[in-house]
Amino acid sequence: MKYYRFELHCHTFHSDGSFSPEELVEAALKAGLDGIALTDHNTTSGVAETVRYGEKYGLAVIPGIEWTTFYGHVTVLGGHSRVDWLSVTPDNVTEKIEQARSVGDVCILAHPYRVGYPVCTGGMNEFPESIFSVLDGYEAVSEDVFKPTNRRQTEEYFRLINEGHRIAAVYGRDWHRPSDIRHAVTELGIEGALNAENALEAIRRGRTRITLNGREIVATPEWRLK
Amino acid sequence: MASVYYLETVIPKSALHTHLRFGFEIGRAADKLVVKYSYAPKRYEGADAEKLAYAAFERAYPSDEIIEKAAVLGALPLNNHITLSLEKEDALIGTAHRHSPDNVFEIGADGASPGFFPVPITPGRYALVLSVHAILDDEVQVRLEADAI
Fold first, then answer.
1. CATH number at residue A206
2. What residues of chain B lie within 8 A of the CB of A43, using their CB?
3. Does B108 touch chain A (CB under 8 A)?
4. Helices A47-57 and A21-30 sit at what angle, rounded to 10 degrees?
5. Got the DSSP string for B104-134?
6. Is the same domain home to B27 and B68?
7. Would you state the torsion angle of the CA atoms of residues A132, A66, B131, B32, taken in this order, to the nearest 10 degrees?
8. Helix (H, G, I), strand (E, B) or coil at B53
9. Closest Cα to residue A68, out of A16, A20, A5, A130?
């Protein structure tokens, strides 16, 4: 197994980012990443082009989408499921996640304590507690690493782990455009070749750690997820 | 060019966090569908904007964290935010998650604006779906136009 550096939460102009697919791939390589997940808001229309540029330039690209609902945001990685984001509600979100996971996708709760409505609709998680029983991952740290909300996110992550939930810790830069924020990366412990499917498996197995300038700041407890 | 849909309407604050569907029929095949979509106001000018933003920070921050006024002011202005999706025969063709209140999108067999998938514009049932992510004013004026070309 070898650890690779990923950014698992990225946007392009297919939603509200400024990057073209090619610019995103180039920016990721310049940042020293080995892979990204494309998670445009409520669309996968940029996936094929981003995957093509990933292949051209040598960057692993995980197809994905961010269900940007009124009550919380979930990044769905893999590109296997066809859940209509318009149909996702607090009452059915666990069922929709199970539907996505059943065909091979990996589901991650994004920025659970971002400042929410009316500053950012759905930015703060308002889904029922039952969601934690079906998630694969949780952004224990998001965006600027030193934002106060990250302290709450990390505490909440370890509360979930201590309650027995099998959820991998990941970082989400929520990368929309070039910026100088103090960002981390998610390192994925990948067995075999560096590719999207093996990256997804690393998240499922909890082989994840969040690092800042090479130093681990949060990791999925191995004793939980072996 | 044929106009296949036109609507000027008002979305009330009570529609917050709903998806509003506006259906129409296309009778003849076309090369592409051009959708124009705009709403106003974008920016919320209410005197309580800072107070609303502060309350959102309070809900998200750790209880022992001091909420800096600069951080709250940095979250202003608050905005109304309505996104547009297109459905064909009840299937989602795409969503344009944009913050601009004034947009034009094109969808056809040979290509589509970012957010949408290329599809042939064949006769059938279509719907424009407005997702009301944020509405702070009492009402928002919306205009929707769809032309088959």
1. 3.20.20.140
2. 94-97, 114-116
3. no
4. 40
5. EEEEETTEE-TTB----B-SEEEEEEEEEEE
6. no
7. -150
8. helix
9. A16
The answer, for B80 touching chain A at a CB cutoff of 8 Å, is: no
Show the domain range for B60.
45-78
Rounded Cα gap, residues A6 and A169, in angstroms = 13
Lay out the sheet containing B19-26: strands in order across: B19-26, B124-134, B81-88, B91-96
Confidence band of A222 (pLDDT split at 50, 70, 90): confident
Q: Which domain covers residue A123, as residue numbers? A: 2-225
Of B101, B117, B96, B129, the residue nearest B37 (C-alpha): B101
* ipTM score of complex: 0.96
Q: How much is the pTM?
A: 0.97
Closest CA to B80 of B19, B17, B20: B17
**Preceding amide of A118 cis, omega within 30:** yes
Report the pLDDT averaged over residues B6-25.
98
Q: Which pLDDT score is estimated for A223?
A: 59
